[in-house]
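General statements about sequence and structure are easier to judge against a single worked case. Part of our work consisted of pairing the sequence of a single chain with a tokenised description of its backbone. The amino acid sequence and the backbone structure tokens for this protein are reproduced below.

***
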Amino acid sequence: MPQNQEILAQLDRILRSNVFANAARSSQFLSYCVTSKIHGENWSLKETSIAMEVFLREASYDPKVDPIVRVHARRVREKLAHYYRTTGRGDPILIELPKGSYVPQFLWAHGAHSPLLQPESEPKPLGIAREIEEEIAESPIRSEPVVIPVTQAIPTLPVEVRSTPRASHLRWIALFSSLALVIAFVAFLIIKRGDKSHPTSTVTSPQSLRPVDLLPPDAVDVAWSPDQKSVAFVQADGHNRTSVYVMEFGPGRAPRRLTHGVGNEYRPAWSPDGQQIALIRSPDDVRFVIVRVGTATGDETVTGPFTANLGVSLYHPVLDWSPDGKYLLTSNQVSPNVPSRLLLLRIADEARILLTSPPIRSAGDLEGKFSPDGKYVAFHRGGLGDLYVLRLNGESASEIRQLTADNRGVRGIAFTTDSKNILFASDRTQNDVFSIYKIPITGGTPTPVSPDGFVAVEPVALSQDVLAFRHVDLAMEFVEHHGNATPAPLFPGNEIDEAPAYSPDGNTIAFISTRSGAEQLWRFRRGDKAPEQLTHFSGEGFLFTPHWSPSGDQITLGFRENGATNIYVVNAKSGEVRKLTNGRSRNFNPVFSNDGTYIFFSSNEDGTPRLWRIAADGKRPAEPLFTQVVSNFAASPDGKWLYYIDYLDSLRLCRLNLFDGTTEAMLSIDARPVFTNSLVVTREGIYVAVAKPNEPYVRIERIDPTDKSQRTMWRIPASGESLPIVTPGFDVAQDGSRLLATRFLRHNSTVFTTQLSAQP
């Protein structure tokens, strides 16, 4: 039988073929079945499970009324047969979906005796346009009501505990990888985002703040023990490995490492009796297990695997312990195209019970907490996201209520000790920072409870009157690397500047900054004393990496506001802004074509993730090009290729032919992309920013597009104790002589406590 990595490589070939490229649902169906099989999750290959996970049907799904799974199984079998008779005739591995079963089979191809390889008597047209319409029609965008009654309990899914191979990102993971970066990027944004609303309620006075000095300065994921005499937290070592530590409060107390397992650890959560700590352990930031560790004995109980295709980030996946100690709350994302869902893990028999069904085009449900009385779960839905609360009825949700609807972001959730209010960090202040707010579980207007202008995230209610939270202080500057010279600041910085981009002649730098309060596009011309603000966007929103036109007279970038991201073009001299797209979904990563006539961008505007093109002058509407969606892409100087990064088992540099839609994998790098935008294409070469295990720096690799040779050009020191997993990006001048990167001047994190009763 073929090995798992060989099977995944074969699946990748199938999904990239013309037979499957324009059939998103068939691709998702096949991918779900194959990945579930190789990860030992045959329990999920049932008609009801497939309907819920692939087609996002509700728990009340009845296969007798809705035959969507059987219909698509037939389509997948037909497409596989057609693929192996045509494009895949010489492939080494057969992937079959036997009739009457959803469990695929993997076989070595041994000549033409296989039924799949027999010649087709009369080739049938694929009807690609019709199938695209069917795919879109079968996955409508469902609006989310404010209150959602749940009339039927979600069935319990038993699961076996076993070890599995590392999961692979699949064909369309680039889209969801970009979503994951947006989600993780919220951590970087927490000190600079905000709308201009001004809540009128009073807040905690700064004089009442007390730092928890005993904690290490780089401690994150801080969890207080039930008796509040100890804390568990996550800390990274010098090799970028994160582990869980426990420390008792008191003179001379030192942190002790709780476990010595393989893989990064996150999200410590204390059992109600304080005898165990549950944590997330992940070998690859995609698959993870839940480990319960005895605080006194160190004995481990491992449950899993689970999947986090969005990637392990600051608040994904979820982990919290129910007040009665019978359940763990976590999240699971069975395939890259399915939103993350909350589920209960019943500790007694390790059964998994789904709680939520987020909309198909959302990032899903990412963060959650039980109420102290065990009757509610509060959670965060979407990328920046809004706050929701559900009422528990046994092992199911009887009602889901949306508490905020303005996409202002959520960064940390906690209940007050009486279970009547929810504390959450959000960006609603006049000073453009995250603060702690309180809102009743029945809904209402969020009211601030932390000092205005003082960054506060990850709240914890230690008592009805005492609040703990984490404060972040961040500043950075741009540093230019030129030859063997010592890297030097481009201009003085004590600000939050990000996403630098050289103009084609290298004399001007465009970047995003909050120097004026709100996030705006700025420029700096060599010889000037200070940067100059170029745009004056108003209202809540944030900008993504700018890209110059080949002539240097225009800049394109994405701007997200009110839950939608759209493409804009800015005059590089006057700052005049034109809005090119007006969608209600995600149009992102715009880049100019080699002649400046078009702008390429990724979008799921029509319901299917794909690459689009729009005229840069806005006189012609946007048009879809290929179903295959990539992120981190840039056009080649000759206009023939779009180079892009595909993160499979290792990082792959690929290119997409803009004339016929074919793709080519140029080379693989045993590393991971480290920046939000990790790819730069210049006239002189292709540059990729990567991080390798156990290296305390980021490599900037140059790849020659002609002979595909690879060379390390620069090494950027890591920030602090660990590599910057998501940072503001980098750029290389068109002649390859200069590198522009970001250096952190200040990146401090401190846990504070405050007396809520100190409010006047």
Remarks:
- Residues 4-140 form one domain.
- Confidence is low (pLDDT under 50) at residues 111-202, 720-726.
- The first strand starts at residue 93 and ends at 96.
- Residues 68-85 form the longest helix (18 residues).
